[in-house]
Each structure stands twice: as structure tokens, then as C-alpha cells.
Design brief:
WRKY19-like zinc finger domain-containing protein, Znf_WRKY19
Length: about 90
Amino acid sequence: CSQEGCSSRVQVNGLCYRHGGYYTCREDGCDRKAITRQLCRLHGGGSLCHVPHCTKLIRQRNGLCAAHGGYYECKVEGCKKRAAARGFCRSH
């Protein structure tokens, strides 16, 4: 990174992510960070679900949206509910 005293890896324009080394969303008036295709998540940035004909964004690295199983399960052994906060479902 070109910022004085910073040894982080350069991302964009000689800067690391922390110091502004990222692209912003290409939508007019939006200053959010772009994820993919120069769009933020709100405007369609991110990867799409791998299920054919599904246009929803993936929720985790398994390539699936929440509707198709792309969510974390509760940390409590035997509980198959979706994790909400800190890895636990709303019941736990």
C-alpha cells in the first residue's frame, strides 16, 4: 500500500482495501463498495446461486442462495435450524 507505514497488499490504485483500494458501485449516486461487475450487493453485485434458473445471490461459499441451502446451521449439536447470530439459531 502506498500509505505511509502501511504494509498491506495493494488492491486498486496503489492502495490496500483499508485505505480505499477498491472500486465503488457504478450505479449513479451509490458510493458503496463494488463486489463484482462494478456493482454493490444492493445493485446486483455478487455471485448468483448455482441452481439453474435461480437469480438470487449466494449466501456462503457453497454456491447456493438461502432458499437452496446456502446458509449456516446452528452450532448446537443436532440442531438443523439456520444460524442467526453468533452461529446460533433464534431458539438457542
